[in-house]
Write a structure and sequence with these properties.
Chain A is α/β, with parallel strands linked by helices. Chain A has 2 domains: 234 residues, Rossmann fold; 73 residues, no CATH class. Chain A is built from 11 helices and 12 strands. The two termini of chain A are 25 Å apart. Chain C is mostly helical. Chain C is flat and about 85 Å long. Classes of the chains: A alpha/beta, B mainly alpha, C mainly alpha. The interface between B and C is large, with 38 and 45 residues.
Chain lengths: 323, 295, 308
């Protein structure tokens, strides 16, 4: 059984249902990518697992989130709280705004160790500086005393990662950890996360809109579109033979060295807003291969023999050629 | 014929919800408070015809009577009907505050627009004066002005107008500074439009909504300020009734006839609450919340 | 921080000069001959001449101002015309009353206002929030003199808990402090609530929740701390409002104090006293603003770095 197993998850925020029957699993030492354009429900998936939906007025409507044998959707808040930061850690999207601006960064890392590991002040400080050094933060002992506004974006993101690591979690959810950073820093952060998975056997959920990051760092990938799973598969299989027209289009958006001029294509149109999801397959208005069936009927997520999953009426579901 | 008429009514409501005023009056807050304010204005306008007694009809044998069927809100120390005097007082209080604030908003807009548009020394001077006066309580500014000009309704109006000038100038200046950098304004200036054209045709109209709403909310405060000046005996002079002056003369009788003080104050509090809630509804309808109510 | 404080104090000097010019000019702005405003009705021409000489009214305006300012620097505020005493004595006699009243009212409105704002924000949109905010709305729309009168009626006349007026005992402070404090509390509560709700939606608060901190601790230790920044700014800027409240309330409760002195002097046209009262109030406003800025710098490292 996987460390985290999400099945048939649907959520409700004030009558709007931005996630519909999402499912995926991730195990120790594994990195799962969740990709999709903005508005596809990636961040809400993260909040659901963290049990933080009530903060934005939402709740889990249906489905299950099992973590290490516990059913999280029915976990009482005090127990959930002991899980957050301790066993499931979160890395937020924007390092610029993710730290409390009036508290020294070191103390913000200490908080986690004091809360969850019961370390005293000086022990927590040694612990924090150790983690900062492991994340290759230069002059960790000095940086410890800095305020967030005195650090660069990449350094702030490392502090956020240090907070996530402080209590040795089993699962880390990173929500677009690199979007707000420069390209060179992005690569460093992805590398740091990769090392964590390999060396400490952490399970990592990497939420991103960047197929490049997925190719670089993930083992499996779930493609979300408008609150539903379009396709999920291992990274190598999905890049070798994307089946869902949306996945194909996403991969078509990555620039490559060997590309001919003019072959880089965007996807026409935008992700529909939650209030105006189309009937049938939600991708059909933007799909180049849509048929009349797609406008009427919701495609079911089918599980193929290889473990790949796909929800599409028109995609090729034969596996022989690619296996 | 009946069917289309019935069809029409939901359509009308939906239509009304789309206009700003419709949105305000159809919201629960805006509807009730709007109706109250409208009624108050009507009472003020029609006071000479609808009050139960003339405001200055003295009836000494019936002095300081508690509320009764004949005098719903009781009588004051001269036997004058408190209800009638409150209704007349609405005339004074509303006209003084509304006039003062209207003039103040207008002048504040001009000053704020000039400061923001021309910048430089003029802007620095206006900003410095405004910042200085803004940190002083309106009541103090008004008190000093009335002390210099002398008591009375005109000086009350001037005092109120000047006391709130800083607020409107400040807001207009901030609004215009934000607008000035927008592309279309830059384009208009680039095309060689005259200063007055840019200011009066483009900048002011676009900056106006928040300032006017701010003025509306300030009218509530102005009513309190007017009453306070009246209470100090510096506003309306007897026998003209104003809410503040009524309470001023009532203090001497506070133990004998508390209703002379309770009711005018209650009317002020309700009116100011109504203005605030109505303003909130207006802000919501116009969707400009962030710009007002700061500081 | 120390150098900033010193710099800010030095910056107060030009502001003070501007304010003093305005206050100095009041005598000359009042319609009529300033001498007429300075002498009592029925004074003899000799007395008039004496006053003219004392105030140097025959000299150029700039010189008059400089003389006035240098006397001010020596603590000489002139002599009250009607009350016939050194103005400095009058101020020294009345200032402590106003400071006590203002300080307590400020304390009351800050502490209770923040508490009310926090309670409302933590029960956002709930029944408690609505009740508190309705109370706050009414608190901020009642004319303070009326509130004072009503409090007198209820607590002094009906219940006989506190004295009606005067300043003889600590009990006489309760109703005046309540009168000013309730209005101020409304302002503080409103700002606190909005600032807390705004802060609660920030990214770093989400991350605090994700770190597993208890919700209550996040609200009180982190969110409130940020919400206090605008509260301090508003309090510093609007310290004058406490003073305005004090003027009215001192009058209603017949309490000695700067406000009472000012109103009395205004009605008696005792301009040297008016000038001195205004000067004191202006200084209180300036120091209040300064104090607000200093507290904010102490609370927010970002403000501190911007200073150096």
């Amino acid at each position: 059984m996987a460390l985290l197993d999400v099945q048939d998850l649907s959520i409700d925020i004030g009558g709007i249902k931005p996630l519909d029957s999402i499912g995926f699993a991730v195990d120790k030492g594994e990195t799962l990518g969740i990709v999709g354009e903005s508005g596809s429900g990636k961040s809400l998936t993260a909040l659901s697992i963290m049990g933080l939906l009530p903060l934005i007025g939402g709740r889990v409507e249906r489905g299950s989130i099992r973590f290490d044998g516990m059913e999280l959707t029915r976990l009482p808040e005090p127990d959930y709280r002991r899980l957050r930061g301790r066993r499931i850690a979160f890395i937020t999207q924007n390092p610029m705004t993710s730290l409390d601006p009036v508290i020294r960064v070191g103390e913000q890392i200490d908080q986690v160790a004091r809360l969850h590991l019961g370390l005293s002040g000086s022990a927590a400080r040694r612990h924090s500086i150790e983690i900062m050094e492991r994340l290759r933060i230069p002059e960790a002992a000095t940086t410890y005393h800095n305020y967030p506004h005195q650090l660069s974006g990449g350094m702030k993101q490392r502090i956020v990662i240090a907070m996530a690591l402080a209590a040795n979690p089993d699962l880390i959810i990173a929500d677009e950890p690199t979007t707000a950073l420069d390209v060179t820093i992005q690569a460093q952060i992805v590398q740091i996360l990769g090392e964590l998975v390999r060396e400490k056997g952490v399970a990592l959920i990497l939420i991103t809109h960047d197929m490049g990051v997925v190719a670089q760092a993930c083992d499996r990938v779930v493609v979300l579109y408008a609150g539903r799973v379009a396709e999920s598969n291992t990274v190598s299989a999905i890049f070798a033979s994307p089946r869902h027209p949306y996945t194909q289009a996403l991969i078509g958006c990555i620039p490559r060295n060997a590309m001919e001029r003019g072959s880089l294509v965007g996807i026409p149109g935008l992700v529909p807003s939650v209030a105006r999801y189309p009937a049938g397959c939600r991708f059909h208005p933007r799909c180049t291969r849509s048929e009349s069936l797609c406008e009427r009927e919701v495609p079911v997520l089918e599980r193929l023999a290889s473990g790949a999953e796909i929800a599409c009426h028109v995609a090729d579901k034969h596996e022989a050629a690619h296996a | 014929m009946t069917a289309p008429a019935l069809d029409h009514s939901p359509g009308f409501l939906a239509e009304a919800r789309r206009t700003t005023l419709g949105k305000v009056f159809l919201s629960p807050k805006g509807g009730i408070t709007g109706a109250y304010l409208l009624a108050l204005v009507l009472v003020a306008l029609l006071a000479p015809w609808i009050t139960p007694y003339p405001y200055d009809a003295q009836n000494l044998p019936l002095a300081s009577q508690p509320p009764s069927l004949a005098n719903w809100l009781g009588t004051d120390e001269f036997g004058r009907d408190v209800l009638s005097r409150i209704m007349y007082g609405a005339r004074t209080s509303l006209s003084v505050s509304v006039t003062a604030i209207t003039v103040s908003v207008f002048i504040g807009m001009c000053l704020g627009a000039a400061a923001a548009y021309f910048g430089g020394l003029l802007d620095r001077f206006i900003t410095a004066v405004i910042d200085l006066s803004w940190s002083f309580p309106e009541l103090l500014i008004a008190l000093i002005l009335v002390a210099i000009i002398g008591p009375g309704l005109t000086s009350t109006m001037i005092a109120i107008g000047v006391a709130y000038l800083a607020q409107f100038t400040r807001l207009t200046r901030a609004e215009i500074l934000a607008l000035k950098n927008e592309t279309y304004i830059e384009a208009t200036i680039g095309l060689g439009a005259s200063h007055s054209h840019v200011v009066f045709r483009h900048l002011l109209p676009n900056a106006m909504a928040p300032v006017i709403i701010c003025g509306m909310l300030a009218t509530g405060d102005a009513i309190i300020l007017e009453a306070t000046l009246g209470f100090f005996g510096l506003g309306a002079q007897p026998p003209v009734p104003s809410w503040g002056a009524m309470m001023s003369s009532g203090t001497a009788q506070i133990f004998k006839a508390p209703w002379v003080i309770i009711f005018p104050g209650l009317v002020i509090a309700i009116t100011v609450v109504a203005i605030n809630l109505f303003g909130d509804a207006l802000i919501r309808a116009l969707d400009i919340k962030s710009k007002i109510r700061e500081g | 921080m120390l150098s900033y404080t010193i710099r800010r104090l030095l910056l107060l000097i030009p502001v003070f000069l501007v304010v003093s010019i305005v206050i100095f000019l009041i005598i000359h702005l009042v319609p009529g001959d300033p001498i007429d405003n300075l002498v009592r009705v029925g004074s003899t021409p000799e007395q008039k001449a004496e006053i003219t000489a004392r105030y140097g009214l025959d000299r150029p305006l700039v010189e008059q101002y400089l003389i006035w300012l240098s006397q001010l620097a020596q603590g000489d505020l002139g002599t009250a015309i009607v009350m016939r005493r050194p103005v400095a004595d009058l101020i020294a006699q009345n200032l402590p009353y106003s400071l006590t009243l203002g300080g307590l009212a400020l304390l009351f409105s800050t502490v209770l206002g923040i508490a009310a704002g926090v309670i409302a924000a933590m029960n956002k949109e709930g029944r408690i929030d609505r009740t508190v905010m309705t109370g706050v709305l009414f608190g901020s729309t009642m004319p303070s003199f009326w509130l004072g009168l009503i409090l007198i009626l209820v607590f002094a006349v009906q219940l006989r808990w506190f004295p009606v007026s005067g300043a003889r005992s600590w009990e006489s402070l309760v109703l005046p402090v309540l009168t000013i404090g309730l209005g101020g509390m409304a302002l503080v509560a409103r700002v606190t609530r909005i600032a807390m709700l705004e802060t609660a939606g920030k990214d770093f608060v989400l991350l605090l929740h994700a770190k597993g901190l208890p919700a209550r601790r996040i609200q009180l230790r982190h969110v409130l701390r940020h919400a206090l920044l605008p509260v301090v700014t508003i309090l510093g800027l609007r310290i004058g409002w406490v003073l305005g409240g004090a003027v009215t309330v001192e009058y209603v409760f017949a309490r000695p104090g700067l406000g009472m002195l000012l109103i009395k002097a205004l009605s008696q046209h005792d301009y040297p006293v008016v000038q001195a009262c205004l000067l004191m109030l202006a200084m209180a406003v300036m120091l209040g603003t300064l104090l607000g800025d200093l507290i904010q710098a102490a609370m927010d490292p970002r403000v501190r770095s911007a200073l150096t």
